[in-house]
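Predict the 3D structure for this chain.
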Amino acid sequence: MAVKIRLQRFGAKKRPFYRVVASESTRARDGKFLEILGTYNPLDGTVNVDTEKVQKWLNNGAQATDTVKSLLKKHNVLEK
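Done. Predicted structure below.
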């Protein structure tokens, strides 16, 4: 079971809102997930992430997608 930290889309047409979730890589984008780690609103650029949960998943072997990795670096959650 490969776990990915990725975005799950919510919101209306032209009004996106995303959750940052940990889910199995074989699941659909908006499908079943393991845990909610935070939120991202691209319209105003806010990112709310529980850093302890993200670090826990990364230490357990989860891989962040490119988009999530760039968001986490931009908001100083990842120190790499």
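The chain has a mean pLDDT of 90.
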